[in-house]
Design brief:
Elements (H helix, E strand, L loop, with lengths): L4 E5 L2 E3 L4 E3 L2 E5 L2 E6 L9 E4 L4 E4 L1 E6 L1 E2 L2 E2 L5 H12 L3 E6 L6 H17 L5 E2 L2 E4 L21 H8 L5 E6 L6 H10 L3 E4 L6 H8 L5 E2 L10 E3 L2 E3 L2 H7 L4 E5 L7 H11 L4 E4 L11 E5 L6 E6 L2 E3 L6 E3 L4 H10 L5 H6 L3 H6 L17 E4 L5 E6 L2 E5 L1 H6 E2 L5
Parallel strand pairs: 1-6, 2-7, 8-11, 11-12, 13-14, 14-15, 15-16, 16-19, 19-20
Antiparallel strand pairs: 1-4, 2-3, 4-5, 6-28, 7-25, 9-10, 17-18, 21-22, 22-23, 23-24, 25-26, 26-27
Length: 408
């Protein structure tokens, strides 16, 4: 539903510097027109009385694989659109679709499908580019990634994958692999973010990787080395490296399962809200009831079981993936990690926007920015979702808050 103007008032507006109580957010078209401390008189606008709820920038998920029983590796545009629409209901207004390790042709197909879906996506979360997670990983840290596709960086392969597209914005790899440093330098030169992931690297290797563009750590703690021994000597691993490198950004799966409260608190304490992004890392089972599901593409994915708010391998020996949504991440940081609401929101909005280099137009309620807005209560229950100035989702309660003008 598209409107010329939307006026949101009587809420707690989360701005980059403070929370404004009782102010107004006014949008026009795709942009935020004004953010004010008091009421803005305006005629002909749709009015939303927030009734004391939070008025927040839209949530930005920079690492997500699926949802609504669809996965970005399913190979069709309908799957992309279903994932985008599913997560929009939970407050996600922008996302970076993410692949799994696969053969070269599947990578190309995923990019082509992304581009086709991006061109027609008009109901769900906006696509910000595609994230290739793998296949250049340490076999020992592959996690639930299919071992058939794990390999070292191949210049002929990655150059051919990237030669005819501008859609790849991020590529996660293990920096200690042969050829990984040259890979990092090459994709950095194209404006693509290299990220440390699924790795057995020690600090000295991560430091060298940093110098080749690896400035971000993919799902910190998950599939990543910690303190290790080599020839009886201890070495800091990739986890410690992320803490030691002050400017390295990190992302965490704050689903309350992958990381316990103590580790959520530790990451927040050491990296802070400006260097930490919250991610769902969600698979197709996000937004679906518990039970059997598939990790990866429907045709060649791995069977998993969803229980205890997480996906597990069939033998239940390890986690297979997240089923989180972005509202749950913010809620968990506030309730489990004792993080102030404004900081939790920052980790779900302005920080991921900065990491993906879209901070100039997304991630904050500031005049001129994209009109991506979420209303939610103290328990982060999503009420209204606005994407590019269009109301894309309303809860039952939200209908009672909406006042449409007679002529717009």
């Amino acid at each position: 539903m598209s409107f010329r103007k939307i006026k949101i008032f009587n809420g707690r507006i989360i701005t980059p510097n403070r929370i404004i109580t009782g102010g107004t957010v006014l949008t026009e078209g795709h942009r935020i027109l004004a953010v004010a401390e008091d009421d803005i008189p305006v005629s002909g606008a749709v009015e939303i009385d927030a009734k004391g709820q939070y008025i927040s920038p839209g949530f930005i998920d920079i690492h997500v694989h699926g949802g609504g029983d669809s996965d970005f590796m399913d190979g069709d545009t309908a799957a992309f659109l279903q994932v985008a629409e599913t997560h929009a209901r939970y407050g996600t207004t922008s996302m970076v679709p993410t692949t799994l390790s696969s053969d070269t042709e599947s990578l190309r197909q995923a990019i082509a499908t992304y581009e086709a879906a991006h061109a027609i996506n008009g109901k769900g979360a906006e696509f910000l580019g595609i994230h290739l997670e793998g296949p250049y990983f340490a076999m020992n840290q592959r996690g639930a990634q299919d071992p058939r596709y794990i390999r070292n960086p191949d210049p002929a392969e990655y150059r051919s994958v990237l030669e005819n597209t501008k859609s790849v914005v991020r590529w996660s790899a293990a920096p200690e692999l042969p050829g990984a440093l040259a890979f990092g330098s090459y994709i950095s030169s194209l404006g693509i973010l290299p990220a440390v992931a699924h790795t057995d690297a020690i600090y000295e290797e991560v430091l060298e990787a940093w110098e080749h563009g690896y400035t971000h750590a993919t799902h910190l703690y998950s599939a990543m080395s910690g303190v290790t021994r080599r020839n009886a000597f201890r070495y800091a691993g990739a986890i410690e490296s992320a803490f030691l490198l002050d400017d390295m950004t990190v992302e965490i799966i704050a689903d309350g399962v992958h990381l316990p409260p103590a580790l959520l608190k530790l990451v927040y304490k050491f990296k802070g809200p400006d260097k930490t992004a919250l991610i769902t890392d969600a698979m197709r089972a996000a937004g679906m009831p518990p039970g059997k599901s598939i990790l990866g593409g429907r045709k060649n994915g791995l069977e998993v079981i969803v229980e205890d708010d997480v996906a597990k391998m069939p033998d239940r020996a390890s986690f297979a993936g997240s089923v989180a949504t972005t509202d749950r991440l913010v809620r968990n940081m506030v309730k489990m990690a004792d993080v102030p609401m404004a900081d939790a929101v920052r980790m779900m909005t302005s920080t991921p926007a900065a990491i993906m280099k879209v901070g100039g137009r997304k991630g904050a309620l500031v005049a001129g920015m994209d009109a991506d807005i979420v209303l939610f209560d103290d328990d982060v229950r999503i009420d209204t979702v606005i994407i590019h100035g269009e109301i894309r989702h309303r809860s039952e309660r939200a209908f009672s808050l909406l006042h449409e003008p007679g002529n717009i």
